[in-house]
Design goal:
- The protein has one domain: Spore Coat Polysaccharide Biosynthesis Protein SpsA, Chain A.
- The protein contains eight helices and eleven strands.
- Helix 4 packs across helix 7.
- With 237 residues, the protein is α/β, with parallel strands linked by helices.
- It starts with a helix and ends with a helix.
- Strands 1, 2, 3, 4, 6, 7, 8, 9 and 10 form a nine-stranded mixed sheet that branches. The protein has a two-stranded antiparallel ribbon with strand order 5-11.
Length: 237
């Protein structure tokens, strides 16, 4: 019942999935998000199913082989990043936010396989938020530190003394969206969206609350070993 109430309370929120990248590290001929997890679902179809459980409107940012994604998710909204081969997630997110600057926005990377409960936990936050796992710290992943109020202080792949990993599932509340857009616009084309988050934090102070989901499974699929773990995860579920 609590999840239904949360979903109704967030009908004005939009969920943005970043799907424009080429995903070359996984070595598939199709967009990474269309990689099968089992006979019935892909990474993307699982994400969409979870987001729709919470009655969220979904917008996909497309680029590489966009027609394949649009066919696979034909009931979503779409925004095209024409420079997908020259830009990173900062610019893909900015392209979408221009259409939703007056709404709360949940956004996520298109290669994350996660427990549905993570979205429920994020939506329960009254603050802008970042889903984090404080039980592991990998050199390749985005890391974070906190200020004394429990808000994100630093968030990037180069963080000294990290407390854990940021999982690529984030929420920004409407009062911060336009300032966030300005910061995303100011960063380099090659930057990840976390650079814009850091700039917003430098400007505004306590913006993003860390939401601990260490007890829930979440895997970013970059390599074949990640995919194997993701498949094992959903089989356990």
């Amino acid at each position: 019942m609590s999840e239904v109430i949360t979903a109704h309370a967030n009908r004005k929120m939009v969920a943005i999935i970043l799907l424009a990248g080429m995903g070359s590290r996984l070595g598939r001929p199709h967009p990474k998000s269309l990689t099968p997890l089992d006979q019935s679902q892909t990474i993307l179809s699982r994400q969409l199913s979870i987001l729709k459980q919470y009655q969220l409107e979904v917008c996909c940012v497309v680029g590489f082989k966009k027609d394949l994604i649009m066919e696979a998710a034909n009931d979503c909204l779409f925004v095209y990043n024409p420079n997908y081969d020259l830009t990173n997630t900062s610019k893909s997110l900015l392209v979408a936010l221009k259409h939703f600057h007056d709404r709360d926005v949940l956004w996520l990377n298109g290669d994350v396989v996660f427990s549905p409960e993570i979205i429920g936990r994020m939506l329960q936050s009254s603050e802008s938020a970042v889903a984090v796992n404080n039980s592991r710290v990998s050199e390749e992943e985005v890391k974070y530190t906190l200020n004394d109020k429990g808000f994100i202080k630093e968030i990037s792949k180069q963080v000294s003394g990290p407390l854990g990993e940021a999982l690529g599932i984030n929420l920004i509340r409407r009062p911060f969206v336009e300032d966030f857009m300005s910061q995303l616009d100011a960063v380099e084309s090659s930057d990840y969206f976390e650079k814009g988050m850091e700039r917003l934090i430098d400007q505004q102070g306590s913006v993003f609350k860390a939401v601990d989901v260490s007890d829930l499974p979440c895997i970013e699929v970059d390599f074949e070993t990640d995919l194997v773990q993701a498949v094992e995860m959903i089989n356990r579920d």
